[in-house]
Amino acid sequence: MARLPSEQYLIQMMGDDKVILFEDGSEREIVRFDPRDQNATAQAQKVIAESELDAEDKCFAHFWSGYFYAHASHG
Question: DSSP assignment of the chain, as one string?
């Protein structure tokens, strides 16, 4: 789990098949995806880019989603 710089959002990998980016406190999900799936990860990147997160949080969310993709079980 990683807290984004604004400390308003968390991104967490749960098992090998689920990453969730959510607002801390309200638990409102921004995006959920399977990091083993390249297309799902790419779609999540698009959702992050179009989200209400500020530029710094987006940067860190992109980094962490890529990190989780790279470390997921790919078969």
Answer: -EE-TTSSEEEEEETTTEEEEEETTT--EEEEE-TT-HHHHHHHHHHHHTSS--HHHHHHHHHHHHHHHHHS---
**Rounded CA gap, 73 and 3, in Å?**
23
Q: Tell me, what's the pLDDT at 15?
A: 87
Q: Kindly list the strands in the beta sheet with 9-14, ordered across the sheet, starting from the edge strand earlier in the chain.
A: 2-3, 9-14, 18-23, 29-33
CB 11 within 8 A of CB 62: no
CA distance 30 to 38: 19
Domain definitions of the chain by residue range: 2-71
> Is the whole model's pTM more than 0.90, yes or no?
yes
How many of the other CB atoms lie within 10 Å of CB of 59? Answer: 14
